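so i finally got all the pieces together for this one. its two components total, 933 residues if u count the protein bits. some of the lines might not be protein, just check the labels. i wanna see the whole assembly predicted at once instead of chain by chain like last time, that was a mess tbh
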Amino acid sequence: MIRRLASLLAATALVAATDAQAATVAIVNAHILNPGAAEIASGTVVIRDGKIVAVGASVATPAGAQVVDAKGGVLTPGFVAVNSMLGAVEISAVGDDVDVNTPDIGAAFDVQYALNPDSTVIPVARLGGITSAVVTPRAEGGQGGAGEHDDSGDEATSGAPASENAHHLFAGQAAVIQLGRGQEMLIKARVAMVSPFGDAGAKVAGGARGAEYVLLKEALADVRAYMRNRAAYERASYRDLSLSRADLEALIPVVQGEMPLIAVANRASDIRAVLKLAKEEKLKLILSGAAEAWRVAPELAAAGVPVILNPVLDRPTSLETLGSTMENAARLEAAGVTVAIEGNSGAHRAHEMRYNAGVAVANGMTKAGALAAISLNPAKIFGVSARVGSLEPGKDADLVIWSGDPFEPMSRPQLILVRGEAQPLRSRQLDLRDRYLDLNRPMPPGYSH
Amino acid sequence: MNKAFGAALAVLASASLAACATITTKPAAGKTASAGSSSQASAPLPKGLDPAGSKDPFPSTYRPLPSRAVALVGATVLTGTGAQIDNGTVLIRDGKIAGVGAGLTVPADYETVDARGKWVTPGLIDTHSHAGVYPSPEVQAHSDGNEATDPNTAQVWAEHSVWPQDPTFNLARAGGVTTLLVLPGSANLFGGRGVTLRNVPARTVQGMKFPGAPYTLKMACGENPKRVYGGKGRAPSTRMGNVAGYRAAWINASDYMRKWDDYRAKAAKGEKADPPKRDLQLDTLVGVLKGEILVENHCYRADEMAQMIDIANEFGYRITAFHHAVEAYKIADLLAKNGICTATWTNWWGSKLEMNDSIEANVPLVEAAGACGIIKSDDPDLIQRLNQEAAEALAAGRAAGLTITEGQAIRWITANPAKALGIAAETGSLEVGKRGDVTLWDADPFSIYARAQRVWIDGGVAYDRTDPRFQSRSDFELGLEGRR
């Protein structure tokens, strides 16, 4: 192997070519993959003041625009990570800000206040093409997808841990963030509420699935009663309610069908039970985890319930994921269900989301469907598609130029824009790499930075 | 000296020679004993009380799957030796690789597989798995990978926890994996013995054991042991406590080894001698000191790896591979000098602080320094996509300015793991005479879209994506509505 340090410099050329301050930028000669639109073998994207103003095969370059030649590179919208912890965790074992352990706060828990734009995890995710993320509270039992890595140091690596959040029928509210360096992170707070179902739901309800539905219906009835009797409640002349005032307030948009409820459920029977609950209570539903969703695909499609899943999961990880298959995404797509694909962890391996989209394609999903599943679909599901998720006039200029097929590990990002600003193609990991590329420097590595 | 004892030793000596080429075999004591002294010699030890008499008490019963001569014709072949052969042919006969090259003539009695447009690699080898010991479904009743009751459990053997019905074995086979090392977890300084398995469906773990593969010892550095035992209010609770624990154990093992050597020397001379009491924990450590058991050392940080190398030098043993080793790139020169492999992931990081300095180009940088790099799973999902993890490392290596061919990169999941398991003479590359462990891919294995189409283990078809007759299901998977 021969080191070619010069190539490191060449990779930064496109970034240098994009002046963040330029009012109008035209990216030309791009192979444009845009969810919901036809593929463009060679086209132009025009950006003005951080917004997309035109996308097409025959778009003229505006006079005075700075021109960036994509040289045939593949241009996609920036990806939208779901079930994310970006900005809310640095080192998992040290702690994170996506769950709480107090009986007073469940539904009211709001991740928006934790967000740290200086997290070293964010640039790593961004190098995976992720430009926005749905930071989501962690429900009891996890989010249903792959978790953080456990290297088998603990006595039991598996099985649900003893609950620390037994009160929490509701794990809290998600927020959508954007990952531009030095930019405002928050796009939209309180985009969805999270609740565990199945084994984890049984656990928070005291040990049995049936109990959870009783408690949930009671809680939702209390929210409606609270809405109708606020004044009496404030005078302390109303009956006791099952939730804190803060939780009751937080659930009002849920019972009104405005804020979706992310139901983490895997077993087919649990999914059906949640669908029935949502119909009875008029809830807007998002299904997450969803290992056996393919077995309920027609019902999900009919009810218009979108599904968040990890397509690499094919093991019977528990007795409620016996029907796990890597064809889950493809079968749901074929049934007309809106699918969003997650990465391999909420934060540190979020950047593998694009590979997971590729795995879904290898197992039958269409390429267009898989691209939408990591961009436009999550943006729609969480109500931010006016800002992000695809390349359309008026949306934020969040896009990535890739050296090839964005699902392939061998492809690398060459240019990443967030709100039209070029992002550094760097991370702390690359700083470490370059410090140790040459172990024979006369001075210790500590002097290389 | 009792004749039966001497004969038993002789048999064991030859068995252990077959088991591992690295074994230093001492002369059988019986050969030097004079016939006249036998009346004074100690009574022979029952087999279970003599470490030398019980080296393989759970012998492999592995039998290859049925096979017939097969020729894979027209494929792009990554041989595992570093080479890429375009339009190549691979011949497998009697369970062995019988030919590899471009334009080979296929003998008449071979079944021909049209592999044009497809890729052929050696069967993949995972040097770090907990299949069977942390099986699916992941319930407490199945959690058998860590005997986290003492920081030194060198006496436990992972094979005694392996559940052969773990569906992970089947899924890993569909990912092209033909051999795997199942290790105990990393709660302990000394976690116990690993077991190298052929990835075939079997009723017993003995039916999967790789015949003659050397035993391995799992050791662990850093956060896990000190967290597990510090949390119980006992040693070790710090990294310095960890090191004291390793050294104390090697002192005990050295003492135990000397006692047995003294005993054998006396017995050989026909002198009266009391045999030491057999100790399973120390047996394993002595196996390491004698070079019979390979050390597989969980260790993340560069500084800790350097200390583990010093400890190995202090007590006279070798470390075969550092596992996880996310900071190996910081000491790639030291690892090269000591001939220690780095078995790691590409993209796993940040779960804990000792995992924070992971870089995607770790394996490429280690290899560039002349050391041996391995991509492993430590995970029942990743074991199904070792090729993808290797592709991510390959891409990162090229982005770092290194020139790396796919022929070189495939070694990270084939030949190099075979080396780290002491089975490189038998598998890990497509060379004439080696085991017929072969994976046929429908695309370049470094593509995200590649999937294993067919997998041969010792020349027998163990998996075929298009033929349900060659898609094994575990007992656990039978009769499940969701898996029909």
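The CA atoms of residues 5 and 44 of chain B lie 6 Å apart.
Residues 123-249+277-428 of chain B form a domain with the TIM Barrel fold (CATH 3.20.20.140).
anyway lmk what u think
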